[in-house]
Recover the amino acids of this structure.
């Protein structure tokens, strides 16, 4: 476990993230131009979609079907468990509990990419079709959480507009679009763009994590506002959800790397698709709660400690 942890903490990806946090804390003038951030996010999402679609094109459906069903089930379960814990133990109001539950049911694409890169570094790569599972996990979780809010409380938003924001958002469009392109063009098609979308992927990811470190450090100022319960929630719930996903992923036939990456996916909290949907559907929800929890607590935890933990558990179960 200690060796896995050190490997992760000393990887260029995590160190770049730490550099971003340090730069923000010492008030450096380091900053990313918004167009560069947008370009990197488009590149990363389209790249994982292309690679996943190409892998899916030669993978038998019998291999994919059980992991897909498990992912859909987890996407509907985790927002419910998050909501119940926030309401019963955290004593949060319904709107804010549903808003946070939407973030913890959905998935962080960057955490997924970091987990995949970590698995390759460890010699335990995940199955190539994992990006398809990201798309399956993204939407149902947000819909379930929003429906909880709409069936239990009166508010001013629209769940249809929120659903449209999720489906038409850049993360889903690029991921699903990349999957379709990769599936139709196959491995031969992927070879045509391999120098750009495959060979340069980890370098772009390192640069993107530097920016994420800057962004996450800005949310650290709000930790006092969200309170001790939400800090604990942002660490404990990912561990519980991640452990459940590792076990179910192993049961569904995924490899050690695949089970661990599924664990990281389910343990992550969205900070792209979910905030956009919640902003429209639940305008009364306080962004300090759901953004600080997902980006300021859970994302750094998963990137540094969570991912090695899910891999250690997957190795213990399936190794």
């Amino acid at each position: 476990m200690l060796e896995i942890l050190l490997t992760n903490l000393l990887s260029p990806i995590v160190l770049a993230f730490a550099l971003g946090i340090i730069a923000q804390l010492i008030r450096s003038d380091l900053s990313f131009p918004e167009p560069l951030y947008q370009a990197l996010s488009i590149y990363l999402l389209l790249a994982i979609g292309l690679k996943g679609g190409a892998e899916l094109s030669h993978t038998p459906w019998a291999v994919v079907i059980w992991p897909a069903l498990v992912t859909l089930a987890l996407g509907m379960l985790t927002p419910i468990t998050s909501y119940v814990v926030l309401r019963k133990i955290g004593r949060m109001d319904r709107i804010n509990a549903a808003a946070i539950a939407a973030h913890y049911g959905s998935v962080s694409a960057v955490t997924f990419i970091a987990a995949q890169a970590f698995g390759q570094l460890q010699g335990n790569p995940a199955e190539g079709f994992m990006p398809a599972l990201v798309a399956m996990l993204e939407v149902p979780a947000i819909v379930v959480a929003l429906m909880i809010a709409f069936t239990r409380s009166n508010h001013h938003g629209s769940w249809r507009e929120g659903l449209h924001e999720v489906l038409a958002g850049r993360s889903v469009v690029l991921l699903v679009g990349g999957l379709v392109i990769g599936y139709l063009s196959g491995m031969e098609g992927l070879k045509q763009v391999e120098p750009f979308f495959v060979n340069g992927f980890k370098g772009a990811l390192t640069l993107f994590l530097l920016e994420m470190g800057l962004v996450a450090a800005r949310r650290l100022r709000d930790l006092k506002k969200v309170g001790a319960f939400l800090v604990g929630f942002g660490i404990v719930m990912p561990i519980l959800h991640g452990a459940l996903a590792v076990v179910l992923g192993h049961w569904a036939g995924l490899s050690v790397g695949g089970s661990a990456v599924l664990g990281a996916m389910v343990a992550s909290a969205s900070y792209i698709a979910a905030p956009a949907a919640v902003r429209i559907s639940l305008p009364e929800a306080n962004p300090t709660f759901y953004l600080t929890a997902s980006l300021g607590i859970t994302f750094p935890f998963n990137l540094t400690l969570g991912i090695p933990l899910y891999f250690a558990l997957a190795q213990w179960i399936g190794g």
Notes: The mean pLDDT is 85. The chain is about 80% helix and 0% strand.
